[in-house]
Design a protein that fits this description.
365 residues; mainly alpha; 13 helices; 71% helix
Amino acid sequence: MGFELIILVVLIALVFEFINGFHDTANSIATVVATKALSPRQAIFLAAITNLLGALWGTAVAKTIASGLVDTQAVTQGVIGCALMGGIIWNLLTWYYGLPSSSSHAMIGGLVGATLAASPKGWDAIIWSQPAADHWWKGKGLLWKVIVPMITSPIIGLCLGFLLMGLLYLLLRNWKPQWVNNVFGRMQIVSSAAMGFMHGTNDAQKTMGIIALALVAGTSAGAFENAPEWINFLKTTKSETGELEIAMWIKVTCAITMCAGTAAGGWRIIKTLGHKMVKLQPVNGFAAETASAAVLFVTGTLGIPVSTTHNIAAAVLGVGAAKRLNAVKWNVVERIVWAWILTIPAAGGAAYLLVRLFQMADMMK
């Protein structure tokens, strides 16, 4: 099997993208639904459109995923397929229990676990840390591109949500509650659209990077040598500078797939994030979405693949804490944090086992 396996891997990647769409829909619409600024149907439509537009905007995050985390020489179509299936398994499990875990970290965990199982280099096939000479965010490896942002971005989102909400409380202290709800009910539509757009720029690009990585690996391995002429558009190579260019068809396909997944909704997670953790009013939703969108804008511009889920959940937590500490349902927060901690090792473990099973069946390519 040559190009047929690549097509299969691309299809698995698109399944992951679709699941990512309905799994992470809550990131951009949970708060606007919880505050009743928009109906669920209106919120999903807004999220679908803004996710589509965001997915077509830039490729910095996609390029990070496609290179800089694992030894690309160890990456085969089988490795990528198992990596994606490991992420899919974890996403469906957390969706079933209504836990807002990170699809981004599920994908990264799957890629690490599958590479670890398939490469004869073992742990040496994982790029742990390659700091850049000028700026830390240009460094490669799990430390700089995953671990550091995984810790710092939710903290920044929490603090920004807390400070913004505190500022709004100060500025609006003499406003009537009805005025506050009316004004911020409208403003929250804008902040929700910004959150949806930033979700598209961040999450859709990760699957773009995985597809590009699969096509580069397949092209280098000569998978297209006996392929029909019409399939040659899939061939992908790195440029002379070593940069990976993401083809337009990859951008459009991933954007539309995520849009379709978003339109399917993800009500289990919406319920947890929008209702169970903190009781939200329109002004709270506006503060949380604005804080999270700001963090995602900066990290997306720098090409850092952070978790949209972590950021919006942390921002909601910060907003709730600004109201009062006991406004936050800490038992729900504890469940969410455990899901965050377990995502990378769980998805990585699933991908690792899949590779081993396929190796035993002599089906690993």
